[in-house]
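Page 47, continued from p. 46.
Same chain as before, 388 aa.
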Amino acid sequence: MIARMNAQQIRTGGKAMAHLEWGKLAFALFVAFVSVTLVATDPAFAQKRIPPPPSDASSFNPLKPLLNLFGIGKRKEKRRLRQEQTERSQPQQQRRREPAKPKIVEEPKDEDARVVLVVGDAMADGLSEGLVAAYAETPSIKVEKLIFKDKGLVDQPEPDYPTRVQQILQGRDIAIVVMFVGAEDVRDMPAEPEKLEFRSEAWENAYKGRLEKLAKTVSFYQTPLVWVGLPPTKATAKRTSFAYLNGLSKARAEASGAIFVDIWDVFLSEDGKYTSYGPDVEGQKRRLRDGEGFGFTWSGYRKVAFFCEREISRVIGSSGAFAFDGVEDDPNFIVLTGRTTSPESELAGGEGGLPEPVAETVQHRLIVRGEALPPVIGRVDDFRVGSP
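Result:
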């Protein structure tokens, strides 16, 4: 009996000692937590701006034993490792997804190949490369460019846009002009005695005048003009300014008979918001805009060129021969220009034509002699007196 009681007392004492140890640990963790909280909220401590401790495993954390007890620390460490692996793999996946700019190999162009002249700023330079790729396998069409790097219509380079375009149109046979300008015009306009503030009434009137002068220069030489609108940008302020410039350029271009290519909605998401990604000309999802959300990637410029190519084909055809591809079933498209000469080398009625009328036949009397056909009783052209 005494031995049994001693054993029970020993077990009871052991449980009491275990409870005491857990109580000490809990009290120590509570004191540590309160100490850290008081120090962190101390104004003097906040003013010192002590940098946070390193996040590696060797840093001291008074709550670490408690977190490890419930497995919280291990789960956080696993999440951190997975996140680091994901971040390291994203650039590699992105590089695999985005194709590099291909090397364009053009087929030899015909001597009388029709010229597509691209005019504008840095964006026009990228567009011209996209059109070169589009017509690389078309010997009858070649692409040339007139680029004003970092210069827009707000500037007055020497010579200016209209003068340089006039010089080219005077001495060359240009089939069509593609204008892509305006990206460099979101700023004040130099003027005397003081510059004109962007979007002011004076600025707008001056800019309209330059748009009109440029469009009239092209139309004076009876050269078709395709005017490409500006795209939406990532920055909200710039996007608003580009939309404003599109309104001005579209009105001036259409007033001069030009074709305005609106690419605004093409580079927006389905809900009308800016996006850097979208389908390319082959239907694959690609990055279309650059990192700044302003310009384009190669896939983006190729897509802009695709929409321009469609309008160019309406004027000079896909082979440069006034084919007007894709407009046969378009009731809103009226062809006002066409071939200036017949593609055949022999006129109708030449050798191998219809045989001459046989003498004394009705056909011979009508065509050769010029005699009238005998009237038919009851027909509307029977003018004899007394005819029924």
